[in-house]
Amino acid sequence: FYAGGVCVVEWAQYIEEELPSTFLKIQIDRVGDGESERVIRLVPHGKEYEEFINKLEETDE
Questions:
Q1: What are the CA-CA distances from residue 37 to residues 22, 28, 33, 34, 46 (Å)?
Q2: pTM for this predicted structure
Q3: Among 1, 8, 14, 23, which residue carries the largest CB count within 10 Å?
Q4: Residue 35 — very low, low, confident or very high, per pLDDT cuts 50/70/90?
Q5: Could you tell me which of 17, 18, 15, 12 has the C-alpha nearest to residue 43?
Q6: Contact status, residue 53 vs residue 44, Cβ threshold 8 Å
Q7: Residue of 60, 59, 53, 57 lying closest to 25 (CA atoms)
Q8: pLDDT confidence of residue 8
Q9: For residue 52, with 0-12 CB atoms within 10 Å meaning exposed, 13-18 middle and 19 or more buried, which class applies?
Q10: What distance in Å separates the CA atoms of residue 22 and residue 7, rounded to the nearest whole number?
Q11: Are 31 and 37 in contact, with CB atoms under 8 Å apart?
Q12: What DSSP string runs through 1-60?
């Protein structure tokens, strides 16, 4: 987690106590009964990622 790069963790709910205090959670959920449609949510944990999400939202306007 601390090498300065990107780390993707699947099933992170099983190691929550091991996660850094700041991280960006990327949640992918199925929509309805469809096999191919998904909703992607970005959930910031910590100021750095909150600012990142705010910048993304600004560019989306």
A1: 29, 10, 9, 6, 29
A2: 0.76
A3: 23
A4: confident
A5: 12
A6: yes
A7: 53
A8: 92
A9: middle
A10: 13
A11: yes
A12: --SSS----TTGGGGGGGS-SSEEEEEEEE-TT-SS-EEEEEEEESHHHHHHHHHHHHHH
Tokens of 29: 């959920």
What tokens does 19 get? 């996660």
Q: Please name the residues in contact with 34: beta carbons below 8 A apart, sequence gap of 6 or more.
A: none
Phi and psi dihedrals of 30, rounded to 5?
A: -70, 150
Q: How many angstroms separate the CA atoms of 15 and 32, rounded? A: 28
Q: What percentage of the chain has pLDDT greater than the value 70? A: 97
Model confidence at 45, in pLDDT bands (50, 70, 90)? Answer: very high
Interacting residues of 22 by C-beta distance below 8 A, sequence separation 6+: 45, 46, 47, 48, 49
